Every structure is written in C-alpha cells, then in structure tokens.
From TrEMBL:
PANTHER family: ELECTRON TRANSFER FLAVOPROTEIN ALPHA (PTHR43153), ELECTRON TRANSFER FLAVOPROTEIN SUBUNIT ALPHA, MITOCHONDRIAL (PTHR43153:SF1). GO terms for molecular function: electron transfer activity; flavin adenine dinucleotide binding. Residues 254-330 form the Electron transfer flavoprotein alpha subunit C-terminal domain. Belongs to the ETF alpha-subunit/FixB family. One of its GO terms (biological process) is fatty acid beta-oxidation using acyl-CoA dehydrogenase. It holds the Pfam family ETF. InterPro entries: DHS-like_NAD/FAD-binding_dom (IPR029035), ETF_a/b_N (IPR014730), ETF_a/FixB (IPR001308), ETF_asu_C (IPR014731), Rossmann-like_a/b/a_fold (IPR014729). Residues 61-214 form the Electron transfer flavoprotein alpha/beta-subunit N-terminal domain. The keyword Ion transport does not apply. It comes from Paraburkholderia terricola. This is Electron transfer flavoprotein alpha subunit.
Length: 394
C-alpha cells in the first residue's frame, strides 16, 4: 500500500534523456514523435563516465537564465537547464546566466549540462531590480544571440523577468510549459480544462517538474567573465526597492511556506511544538489524526484531503507517513522525520530520520534555540546550532 505511486491521469509527457516519457500505472509510454539528439547516447550511459554533449564547434546558443538561491540553483532551475541541454544538439552551446552569486564550481555545473556560465553577482533574488535585470538579460541576448531562452516559471523573479523580456523584445513566449521537446511546447489552458501546444517559441517559461534533470552527458562547464555595460537604472529612481517585509510564519498559507514543522499523533506537548515553530520561523502543519483530535485547526491538515505543500524543509514529528499524508508532501525537498519507530513509512520518504521521542527532540531543539539566541544575542539561526536535524540541511 505504502509503495503505491499515485499518478495524475492528465499528467503530460516528461522530457527525459530517453525522449518524452509518460509513466502510467507501471508502464512507460513514449511519445511517438519525439526525436532527441540526446537520445542516441542514452542507452548505456548510466554505467559509464558521462561523455561531453557537444562534439562539434558550437554554432548556436540556447540561453538559460535563473536566479541563484542562496548561492546554488534550485530544483526548478536545474530542470530548466536540463530542458535546454536535452533539446540542444551537438553544435549547440548551453549558456547559463545566473542572477546572484553562484558559489558552486563551474565544473559541477557541467554535470548539469552547462557549457558556459555567466555569473552576475551584483543581483540578488531578495532585491527587486526588474529593469536592471531586464537590461542584463537583453545585453546577454545581444552578445550571444540565442535561438531560444529558457527560464523557470516561478514567482521568485525568473517568471517575471521572462515575461518582461518577451514583452520588451516582442518575442514569442510560452508560459507554464508542462511539456517540451526540440520541436514543441505544451501547457494547460482555460483553467486546466484544455491542453494547448505550439512550436518552440523564443522564450520558454517552464513549469516545475516537466523535465527529468538526470542527464546522460556533461557540458563544458566553463566560467565566462562578462560585464553588463551601462549604468544601473533602478538606482536612479525608476524602481524603488522597499525591501522585504518579514511576516509571522503562522500567517503564511501552508502552500507557500518554505519551512514547515508538522505534528502527528506522536506529538503530545502541543504548546512546546508551537513554540518551536515560532522560534524556527516555520509554518505549522499537522496530520489528519492530529487535526481530528482537535490539536490543530483543519486548515493545518496536510495530505490527500488537506493541503499539498512544497517546502524546502519539512520536519515531521510523530507522523507515521500514511500514503494520504505522503501525497501532501510529495513536492517537499528535504523531509526530516522524528519518530520512535524506525520502520514507520515516513522513514522511507525522509532524507533524515531521527529515531527519538518527539517531545524530547522538541524540548532539545527549543533549548538549543534559546542557547543559540543567548550566545548570539538574536532570536534567529537555530539551523547553525547543534540541533539533531542539522545534517539534513547541509
Ligand atoms: C480517505 C482518507 C483520506 C485521508 N487524508 C489524510 C490527509 O489528508 N492527511 C493525513 O495526514 N492523513 C489522512 N488520512 C489518514 C491517514 O490514513 C493516517 O491515518 C494518518 O495520516 C495518521 O496520522 P499520524 O501519522 O499522525 O498518526 P499515527 O498513524 O497514529 O502515527 C503516529 C506516529 O507517531 C509515532 N510516535 C508515537 N509516539 C511517538 C513519540 N512519542 N515520539 C515520536 N514518534 C511517536 C508512531 O511511531 C507513529 O509512526 C486519510 C485517510 C483516509 C482513509
């Protein structure tokens, strides 16, 4: 029961190294018309060192633009890169333009299919500089003349930048793209009641999880030193960044929360749990049993009949991990389970399982938080302290 995978029957094809694929109840469907340059090298790639994708002198460019997330690329940006790399042929270079500081090695980016990396460390995802970013993207397009530009269609800067660029350059654009190959893109339209396809436009804004980021090849992974010419205009008053307003994590809709602590039947000390959530700045979630018991309101329930969440970090205290609950956390990045039972199904889903009593762990984390606060004179940054869950966040 617990290993049963739930499939969205209306799920589109996913671009993978082996072509367009759709997995339906254990069988893999292949899109008839898919024809990928990458597919030829796919068959036995997993056992061998990965070959370089480009084998001839590059003649055209695919540009991928994305904001860095704390010095790295998030899953969505990696999928967008993979889309470009899978579509590229042997004479096409994949150039990545990163807005913000990128602390990884360029060679590691080669593993993600990047041939050239251009880093623009003067930008920051947390600062609103749409005009400067647009100018930088336009300058990069002018320098490299890419045939297509790919951005993750997210709400944290890239989606907005792609739309601005397409409008400014009068370029063809497809948004919320859920299916893509070398010749076409497709997206749900009319409130998800219809599926529309078109030829590959100049600007592709890719929805999350439309691409399998595992690649059978590597890119050249070269870092390019590149300057944006001209004065920044945002600082001259065209746009004013009013900063980011911090709000109480409890006010945040669970679907938007990046950090969630969640309580199940194994949590008995609810006030201590709520104190921990507030100290960590995490939103509160709960299993159905905890909600049915009256410990939490119904809007906190996560799962098949509750909310579906996409947090970067999800800590499940005393939650068994029933299939209905797992359905609600399928898109979470790091799952940490605290459970007395090492064989609970949540342990299979979790990246880190702490076999311990929930109350004791919560108390220890609260204690570590106040020790860290005293040491630093601040209420923040428990994540750098000696909390048991530290390893999973590295
Ligand atoms: C149609 C349908 C829809 C459903 N929808 C949902 C849904 O949306 N969301 C949802 O969550 N469930 C849903 N359920 C219920 C689901 O099947 C499970 O019953 C529920 O998720 C179990 O909640 P739990 O893990 O908190 O409790 P339990 O199953 O009781 O598990 C408690 C866990 O806590 C551990 N534990 C106990 N004491 C401690 C302790 N002191 N310290 C650490 N660990 C401890 C135990 O080892 C156990 O793993 C649905 C069920 C059905 C039939």
């Amino acid at each position: 029961m617990n290993t049963l995978k739930r499939i969205d029957p209306r799920r589109p094809f996913i671009i993978t190294a082996d072509g367009l694929r759709r997995i339906t109840l254990g069988a893999t469907g292949v899109a008839g018309s898919a024809d990928f340059a990458a597919a030829g090298s796919a068959g036995h790639h997993r056992e061998q060192a990965k070959p370089r994708r480009t084998s001839a002198t590059p003649q055209r460019v695919l540009l991928v633009a994305a904001h860095a997330d704390r010095g790295a690329l998030d899953d969505h940006a990696r999928q967008t890169l993979a889309a470009a790399a899978l579509i590229a042929d042997t004479t096409t270079e994949v150039v990545l333009l990163v807005f913000g500081e990128f602390t990884g090695e360029a060679a590691a980016l080669g593993m993600l299919g990047v041939d050239k990396l251009i880093e623009l460390p003067m930008f920051d995802r947390r600062k609103f500089a749409p005009i400067d970013e647009l100018n930088a993207l336009a300058a990069c397009v002018a320098a490299y003349a890419p045939v297509h530009i790919f951005l993750p269609d997210n709400a944290t800067g890239d989606g907005d930048l792609g739309r601005r660029y397409a409008a400014a350059a009068n370029a063809s654009v497809a948004t919320h793209v859920v299916e893509i190959d070398a010749t076409h893109v497709a997206a749900y339209v009319r409130a998800n009641t219809a599926f529309a396809a078109r030829s590959l436009p100049e600007v592709v804004l890719l929805a999350p999880n439309a691409v399998d980021p595992k690649l059978p090849f590597v890119g050249a992974g070269e870092r390019v030193v590149w300057r944006v010419d001209g004065e920044p205009v945002s600082s001259k008053g065209a746009v004013r960044d009013l900063g980011i307003e911090e709000i109480d994590a409890a006010q945040l809709a669970l679907e938007e929360a990046d950090f969630i602590v969640s309580a199940g039947n194994g949590v008995s000390d609810v006030p201590a749990f709520e104190r921990l959530a507030s100290t960590l700045g995490a939103a509160i979630g709960a299993s159905r049993v905890a909600v049915d018991d009256g410990k939490f309101t119904r809007d906190k329930q996560i799962g098949a009949t509750g909310k579906t969440v996409e947090a970067s970090v999800y800590i499940a205290f005393g939650i068994s991990g029933a299939v209905q609950h797992l359905q609600g956390i399928k898109d979470c990045r790091h799952v940490i389970a605290v459970n007395l039972d090492a064989s609970a199904p949540i342990a299979k889903r979790a990246n880190l399982t702490v076999i311990a009593d929930a109350q004791e762990t919560i108390a220890a984390l609260n204690e570590a938080a106040s020790a860290a606060r005293t040491a630093r004179g601040t209420g923040a940054a428990l994540l750098n302290s000696t909390a048991p869950a530290e390893g999973a966040l590295a």
